Amino acid sequence: MVYSFLNVNCSIEGPGGIFNLAAGAAAAEEGITIEASEDKNVMTIGADGKGQHSLIASDACTLTVRLLKTSPLNAALMVMYDLQSASSAVWGQNVFTIVDTGRNDYTVIQSAAFKKKPTITYAKEAGMMEWTFDGIKANSLLGAGQ
After folding, report:
1. For residues 102 and 22, is the Cβ–Cβ distance under 8 A?
2. Which of 9, 65, 132, 140 could crosslink 115 through cysteines, CB 3.0-4.6 Å?
3. Distance in angstroms (rounded) separating the CA atoms of residues 104 and 124
4. Nearest 5°: CA angle at 111, between 42 and 39?
């Protein structure tokens, strides 16, 4: 089996635009990360050693997209951020679709909002810009149809 970031597509669709943020978008070497916002299980152990599990209903996640400092998508995302943060009527309406066509992995993140503006660094080397989003619902299917 072979993996290549060239097979990864990550689109954001929301008020202010639709953009690809993966292969072809000057993504940084560190790429894209999707991380659950909380554990799916909480285990509670009583004083007598008996225990229980609680299944947590949340499918929330944090998505981090890392772009090279020189990527033109940084300007597009900043315009999108400024537009969305100006009104609660358009806040939290982004949808991400991440597909790895080589692995048949699919993730859809719904009701996503910018977590904050990215940290802007001016240093010896250009570095990257990290864009972080909170998503209310994330569904993934890894290796579909393989």
Report:
1. no
2. 132
3. 39
4. 10
Please provide residue 32's backbone torsions phi and psi, each rounded to the nearest 5 degrees: -125, 140
- Does residue 45 sit within a domain? no
Q: What is the CATH number of the domain that holds 130?
A: 2.30.110
CB-based contacts of 110: which residues, under 8 Å, 6+ apart?
95, 135, 136, 137, 138
pTM across the whole model = 0.92
Q: Which residues contact 51 (CB under 8 A, 6 or more apart)?
A: 43, 44, 45
Handedness of CA 23, 16, 72, 121 (dihedral sign): negative
The parent domain of residue 91 ranges over 5-38+59-141
64 found inside a domain:
yes
Asked whether residue 129 is domain-assigned, the answer is: yes
